[in-house]
Amino acid sequence: MNIENYRTFQVLAITESFVKTAEHMNVAQSTVSSRINELEKFLDTKLFERSKWKVKITNAGKLLVPYANNMIANENEAISHIKSAGNFEDCIRINVSGGLYREKIAPIVDKFYNLYPQYSLDIRFNKPSVQLEILFENDGDIGFTYIAHSSQKIEVIPYLEYEWILIANPDYDIPTKINVSELTSLNFSFFHLNTELEKWLLDALPKSFKPRININSIAQLIEYVKKGYGCAFIPSYSVKEDLEAGIFKEIKINNLKPKKFYNYIAVNKKRENADVVKKFLNLIPEVYNNR
Question: For a FRET experiment, which of 18, 192, 220, 284 has its CA 20 to 30 Å from that of 164?
Fold first, then answer.
């Protein structure tokens, strides 16, 4: 059965109009009617009740909707894989945030690229919540997120344990130890918040507190702190080497108990046994050592 028949059925089930379906699919109304008739003949059942002014889906049609959606999604996924892989054996589709990529994932990508020339890579930068949506829709293979969300479609693997630390340029006029009460008087030119960090600092900062500039890129935030634009909380893994090299200084906070944060690798279960995915995961030391 032609997949276009199922696509037409999918649209008609939503619009309940042959005219609107034809417009949406950019085909003639007669083509819509022909495809639905062909599908009904193939299934030997009526999918829609037609009248002069109205189209109504039948109970049999309602039963077909989820199966048609799955067939179309599977075809789209196959097309995506084939296009992504091109002349390669397979393609790994990675979703990650910029800050984590810069410090942790980029070296793994370099190693993978040189070790496995038979595979291609599709790397996209997205927020953690968006990454999970992409994996759930089978449009990605691996994501890196602080959201520990397992489901029937996604496997979550523990990855990193880290702290958010307060840093500044060494020349920035601030002592390396301060009291928690002094936080509100600091020049937070940039202040990157995520939900977990915000919860941790809720007691330390008043609800009315506003940083001078908010920015949702850790990598760019680090660059501005290097220039001396105030101080900021940064994930410890992002600046470990820079701290050792003296590019930044860490400001310790008295009476503020350090909190552990976690990052996870989310894997599309439909692709977890693919060689390309397994080879990439095996290059990540934290994953390899725990398997």
Answer: 284
